[in-house]
Amino acid sequence: MAKEVKLLGFWPSPFAIKPKIALHLKSVDYEYIEETLQSKSDLLLKTNPVYKKIPVLLHHNKPICESLNIDEYIDEAFPSTPSILPAEPYDRAIQRFWAAYIDEWFPTFREVALAQSEEVRAAAIEKVKEGLSLLEDAFVKCSKGKPFFSGDNIGYLDIALGSYLGWLYVYEKLSNINALNKEETPSLLTWAERFSAADAVKDYIPEVDKLMEFAKIIMPRFKAAASN
Amino acid sequence: MAKEVKLLGFWPSPFAIKPKIALHLKSVDYEYIEETLQSKSDLLLKTNPVYKKIPVLLHHNKPICESLNIDEYIDEAFPSTPSILPAEPYDRAIQRFWAAYIDEWFPTFREVALAQSEEVRAAAIEKVKEGLSLLEDAFVKCSKGKPFFSGDNIGYLDIALGSYLGWLYVYEKLSNINALNKEETPSLLTWAERFSAADAVKDYIPEVDKLMEFAKIIMPRFKAAASN
């Protein structure tokens, strides 16, 4: 029998990792449909005609697009515990703010990797560091001494940042930078280890070696696109 | 006595109009603090250090930033009727999707106004029209024959699009285009009239003439920024 929930994803994509973790946390059984880099499936084009991008969640064949939007939907449509968003409106607003910030900020890692001059590279590293410093601060404030942004358990903002960790490690290697370290981001450093080892997460963050292989294919494309 | 809710805004900003309408709908009494174009206040810099932009909502002095995030917060923190977001998770996800789309798409109107060649102008008009066509379609699907995106009453997606109406009319004049019309966007055209006349809205959408005066000041700045 066809499953009532389907997810269209692509294994290296941090955007697809977000709903995978959310569905795992909610113990939702689903069919995973892997897209390819070569061509977009008819199902993807039909279910996300606006952006034509994964991830798409299908629930009773009704599509939901955009990864953070999908995670909120999963939280609301499957009200079983645990909650993904915090209970308090203010905490929810703060997590939504930082989750959106992360999606805007993370591409600065790519700018570092693609920089064609020392000047551009230095400016991009500055933006990377600024974001890390803000997020270190946000972690301290949100977690209130507990292990995760959301407190005792992984939640919305943990997923929003944690889904990028594989690529963060790849960019550290590609660009020879030390993004997470004991001196500047001590809380994020231990949070990242804790997050990556969690049961709800460890099967979904791709191995760095495998992502590095993929990066060798994709980075030249990004480079060509950036110089157009 | 100081009011427990404060809003930092700037009168021509569609982003500041969003929380104004949401607060009106929820009958929340608040202090409005007008920022200026000349310099950013210390309060703004302190309460939105990441983006340094209005609107900022202060609730018991705790800041919430980003206009759509603020509207969700208002809905959750003041659970009095009416609700701003729909009740059903799927409807909520669809409204969130289009609200984010609108923020991404609306600047294409500015591209039309600033276009330096017929070719650039035609391409920008194409993007404007594509968005309008998608939103006309979204209106038909979301409203299900009722007056607003949210049904019988103004809700989240109505606010998200409606807050741009003043600028939409300004760009129609500036660029000599007919964005909303009976042939291509019949539903949006009547929705826009209905929305602008609503009690919760009519005091917050600036007059077109006043916005045109402001546009004469701001457009040359946008032009200079675009050519840098």
Biggest pleated sheet of chain A: 4 strands, mixed
- What number of structural domains do the residues of chain A give? 2
Topology pattern of chain A, helix = H, strand = E: EHEHEEHHHHHHHH
Which CATH class of the largest domain in chain A?
Mainly Alpha
Sequence of strands across the biggest β-sheet of chain A: 2-1-3-4
Tell me the structural class of chain A.
Answer: alpha+beta
Give an overview in words.
- 2 copies of one chain form a homodimer.
- Chain A is of the alpha+beta class and 228 residues long.
- Chain A folds into 2 domains: 5-77, Glutaredoxin, CATH 3.40.30; 89-226, Up-down Bundle (Glutathione S-transferase Yfyf (Class Pi), Chain A, domain 2).
- Chain A is 56% helix and 7% strand.
- The first copy, chain A, is built from 10 helices and 4 strands, in the order E-H-E-H-E-E-H-H-H-H-H-H-H-H.
- The first copy, chain A, has helices spanning 14-25, 42-47, 67-77, 89-105, 108-114, 118-143, 156-162, 165-175, 186-197, 208-226; strands at residues 5-9, 31-34, 56-59, 62-65.
- The first copy, chain A, has a 4-stranded mixed beta sheet with strand order 2-1-3-4, covered by helices on one side.
- The longest helix of chain A has 26 residues, at 118-143.
- Chain A binds chain B through residues 50, 59, 62, 64-66, 69-70, 72-73, 76-77, 89-90, 92-94, 96-97, 100-101, 134, and chain B through 50, 59, 62, 64-66, 69-70, 72-73, 76-77, 89-90, 92-94, 96-97, 100-101, 134.
